[in-house]
Design brief:
The complex is a heterodimer of chains A (308) and B (270). Chain A contains eleven helices and four strands. By secondary structure, chain A is mainly alpha-helical. A two-stranded antiparallel sheet of chain A has the order 1-4. In chain A, strands 2-3 form a two-stranded antiparallel ribbon. Chain A is extended, with a radius of gyration of 28 Å. Chain B is globular, with a radius of gyration of 19 Å. Chain B has eleven helices and twelve strands. Helix content of chain B is 36%, strand content 29%. In chain B, the strands form three sheets. In chain B, strands 6-7-8-3-9-10 form a six-stranded mixed beta sheet, sandwiched between helices. A four-stranded antiparallel beta sheet of chain B has the order 2-1-4-5, with helices on one face. In chain B, helix 5 packs parallel to helix 7. Chain B is α/β, with parallel strands linked by helices and 270 residues long. The chains are: A mainly alpha (308), B alpha/beta (270). The interface between A and B is large, with 33 and 42 residues.
């Protein structure tokens, strides 16, 4: 039989001089971004997996969870005693244990958010320049107090006891609010959680858009990951980073074009199944005894903690 | 004599007014009939289904559904629009695109709810369809977490809950493993026996052999080259070669390799 294969295809790879001196193209700057995206996508799986566990907290109706979340964040915001906030922290932690979530992983995220927004951002408020009081940690001493307009900079600048109390309270409020929100998010499937916003009067069409956006983030990140692997598997040789950037920006355009086509076809699929501009979503879960018990416990605890 | 449920008259369609997709298409489908549109990739099969379903509209020519024209204007009449959507279920080639709801159960309820079916009836239909297709275990699963075969089953289920008279199916067997392919082949026969009109596209001649539908062949020139019964088309070797649905290729036998016109499923002559 006649062989029409081009001769270069018959040549062993090692005999090709241009590849012998080639270096692997550097893609480390991309690696990190893509891997972070992939890890975010993976967290969607983790969230769904957690939410589908047959635990008491997972079984609570999403509507009830949303009401409880709003109520709890309100209680956390008005409680102004450190002891009461600490009790709330312990209570939420015990709920995490009951829900059998991966506590270390979740609390790492909570600490990160609470430290930035509840500690670093508000830390200057504990200085005696802003919150006067007894200094418990002196930072700097100047020759004499400075006065200008209505402001006074004292001779000793440092953190005050009152300031620390204020910062601790804000930190715990943010810590507790974030951890309660995380508890709800990690124990409820994203779609049902979104649907529970119906109780707040959010229109079905808006919730459908959120659901579709959620789906497309997922699909898009998968396309990005696959396109990146395809690029990585074909790139070798002494390619400049600038050239790689050019290639990547071209691929970004390609990915957006592709997602636009997907969107168009999804729209056709919706029209074909009766979509006429207004979406009607289904919400089927009825309240069970677990929901009522959860609601009563939280309401009673909330009132108790306010009067503590 | 049964009336035509779908009728296409002199349909022309092009993408962006430049790339022709369909040229002078004439085709009619009778109630309860099974019709296959076969042709190579890019011959215009999917575009034809889009046109039948009133998702896109031809540059020229006329589409009739139960004798009524399907156009942008006629579909703007809400009653006709609902009637057409309710009567035609379209299963896209890529189920990834077709599934846009949060969970499988939501997916099955989407169409009946949009078509104003009471919630209880819609739920009842969805439960029965899940059971009919043997996918009850997928009920609360997010659609993102389904395998290829499961997505296809859910896609078909999501259309069946509308109880359409006509099923438009684009490449029913694409990207499916052999077991799921058999499942779908049997399902199509069962639905057709139950009285559903089925119009599907394919380039798999073995599927034509299994289902024995009436066949319309789209050529690479985007025209319908021939219509006929499955056996008329499959036994016309010369014609199938002319439209490139069978071709000469090399394959291996015990005693070596050789090249000849060859279709794996219909005939295999040496």
């Amino acid at each position: 039989m006649e062989n029409k294969i081009p001769s270069y295809l018959l040549q062993p790879v090692n005999d090709q001089p241009e590849f012998q001196k080639a270096k692997r193209a550097r893609l480390s700057f991309l690696d990190k971004t893509i891997m972070n995206t992939a890890s975010a996508v993976k967290s969607i799986y983790v969230q769904a997996e957690n939410a589908s566990k047959e635990n008491v907290i997972q079984r609570i109706n999403p509507y009830v969870k949303l009401i409880v979340m709003i109520y709890s964040i309100f209680i956390i915001s008005i409680v102004s005693h450190l002891e009461a906030q600490l009790i709330i922290t312990i209570f939420i932690f015990s709920l995490f244990i009951i829900a059998r979530l991966k506590i270390f992983r979740v609390y790492k995220k909570i600490f990160f958010l609470a430290t930035i927004f509840g500690f670093i951002v508000v830390l200057p408020a504990s200085l005696n320049i802003i919150t006067p009081g007894k200094i418990i940690f002196n930072i700097i001493t100047i020759n004499k107090p400075l006065h200008f307009w209505i402001y006074t900079i004292p001779q000793n600048i440092g953190f005050t006891e009152n300031g620390f109390k204020v910062v601790s309270l804000i930190f715990l409020r943010i810590f507790n609010s974030v951890s309660f929100a995380m508890l709800i998010v990690f124990t409820t499937s994203f779609p049902s959680f979104i649907k529970s916003f119906k109780i707040l009067g959010v229109p079905d069409t808006f919730m459908m858009i959120i659901s579709l956006a959620y789906k497309y983030i997922f699909i898009l990140s998968r396309i990005i990951e696959e396109t990146y692997f395809a690029l990585k598997s074909r790139l070798s040789g002494n390619i400049k980073n600038s050239r790689i950037r050019e290639l990547v920006s071209g691929r970004i355009f390609f990915i957006f074009k592709k997602s636009m086509l997907i969107y168009e076809n999804t729209y056709y699929a919706m029209v074909s199944r009766g979509y006429q501009g207004k979406v009607l979503l289904h919400s089927r879960k009825k309240l069970s005894s677990i929901d009522f018990v959860a609601l009563i416990i939280i309401v009673i605890l909330g009132i108790w903690i306010i009067y503590l | 004599m049964t009336e035509d449920i779908i009728s296409l008259k002199n349909i022309d369609y092009s993408y962006y007014g430049k790339i022709p997709a369909l040229k002078n298409i004439n085709l009619s489908v009778k109630k309860g009939e099974m019709v296959a549109i076969i042709g190579l990739n890019g011959s215009g099969k999917s575009t034809l289904l889009h046109i039948i379903n009133g998702l896109i509209f031809p540059d020229s020519g006329e589409v009739l559904f139960n004798g009524n024209p399907v156009s942008e204007k006629s579909l703007s009449d809400k009653n006709f629009g609902i009637k057409l959507r309710q009567s035609m279920g379209y299963i896209f080639q890529n189920p990834e695109i077709q599934l846009f709801c949060p969970t499988v159960f939501d997916e099955l309820l989407f169409a009946p709810l949009q078509l104003n079916l009471p919630v209880k009836d819609a739920e009842d239909r969805a439960e029965k369809t899940l059971s009919f297709l043997g996918i009850e275990y997928l009920k609360d699963r997010p659609v993102l977490m389904l395998s290829g075969g499961e997505k296809k089953k859910v896609a078909i289920a999501s259309v069946l809950t509308m109880n359409p008279d006509i099923l438009l199916i684009d490449e029913p067997l694409s990207s499916l493993d052999p077991k799921t392919q058999t499942f779908f082949t049997d399902l199509l026969l069962e639905l057709n026996h139950a009285g559903k009109t089925i119009v599907f596209t394919t380039h798999h001649l073995d599927l034509i052999d299994h289902l024995q539908p009436r066949v319309a062949v789209l050529s690479e020139e985007h025209t319908i080259q021939k219509t006929g019964t499955a056996s008329e088309i499959l036994n016309d070797e010369e014609f199938l070669i002319s439209v490139n649905l069978i071709h000469e290729h090399v394959h291996k036998h015990e005693n070596g390799e050789h090249k000849h016109y060859h279709s794996h499923y219909v005939f295999h002559k040496h």
